[in-house]
Structures are given as structure tokens and as C-alpha cells.
Amino acid sequence: MAMKEETSQWKQAMINSTAGAISGAISRTVTSPLDVIKIRFQVQLEPTSSWTSLRRDVSKPSKYTGMFQATKDIFRDEGIRGFWRGNVPALLMVMPYTAIQFTVLHTLKTFASGSSKTENHINLSPYLSYVSGALAGCAATVGSYPFDLLRTILASQGEPKVRALNNSQGYYEMILK
Predict the structure, then answer these.
(1) What pTM does this model have?
(2) How buried is residue 151: exposed, middle or buried, by Cβ count under 10 Å (0-12/13-18/19+)?
């Protein structure tokens, strides 16, 4: 009986991991263009606000000044593929993140409720659900952070590309610094 229960738990963990990874991949790929635009604004050194044009220490205008203008410029300079720059590392981040989150959340709720049946997890107190979700999110973040760093670097580059990470050794050296 214990062997059957262990097999069932393993099967449930695999289902949760797979469902998390697939849902994460789909949502990440669909939202990639918005994420690329957001990152370009975040790493832009020039200000985007008209208020900052009053400052005398700003030497050149902003490359990106608004969502539509940024979309047009990225498309013109990099083509449609520019909107998915850094998506593969992002998938390498999101898929483990959501797989870990789904699996840890189900495991913690199983432990808290004393049952592996999902319908029994609904009866958990809001406090236990909150704590389970927070711990699952923490575990997922720790497990996927190196991929998030690489994704941000690649998405922020634009054209011309920065060649600082020409191999995996360069990436690992950057993380360890």
C-alpha cells in the first residue's frame, strides 16, 4: 500500500510540474513583447518625461518615449524577432519557476490538509493557503533567479548586441561576481 501511495504522489508531482511548466511557457511567450518594451524603458539611461527636459545635464533625447513609439522602433530596427529577444532564457526561468511553484504549493497544501486530494485543499484556512503560496513562491524564485538575470541581460541589449556573454563561462562569472 505504501508503494502505491508513493507512486501516486510521484505521479501527482509530475502532473503539477508539467502543468506549471506548460502554463508558464505559454503565458511567458504571449507576454514577451510587453516585457521587452518594459525592460528597454528600465535600462534606458535617458529620461522619458518632458519634465526632465528642463534639466541641463541631459545631453541627448530618449530613444524610447512611449509604448507605441518603442514598439515601432523595435520593429523597424530588429524586426518581429526583437520582441522575443531573451525569450528562451525567460522560458528557462519561467518553466522551472512555475513547475516548482505548482509542485511545492500542492505538497504544502497536502501536508497542511493531511490529504493529497485537491478538493480537501479548498477547506484550508486562508492563513495556511497564504503561507503555502508564499513558501511556494519563495522556493520557485530561488530556483529560477539565475535564468531571470540572463533573460534581463539579453532582453535589454537591443541592437547592436553587447558581446559580454559570448559563452556560458562568461554568464557564470557574471552571476558569481
Answers:
(1) 0.64
(2) buried
Which residue in the block uniquely carries the three cell numbers 526583437? Answer: 82
Cβ–Cβ < 8 Å for 151, 163: no
Look at residue 133 and tell me whether its pLDDT is greater than 90: yes
Q: How confident is the model at residue 167 (pLDDT cuts 50, 70, 90)?
A: low
Omega prior to 33 cis, within 30 of 0: no
DSSP assignment string, the chain: -HHHHHHHHHHHHHHHHHHHHHHHHHHHHHHHHHHHHHHHHHH--S--SGGGGG-SS--S--S--SHHHHHHHHHHHH-GGGGGTTHHHHHHHHHHHHHHHHHHHHHHHHHHHT---HHHHTTS-HHHHHHHHHHHHHHHHHHHHHHHHHHHHHHHH-SSPP-S--SHHHHHHHHH-
Tell me what pLDDT residue 23 has: 93
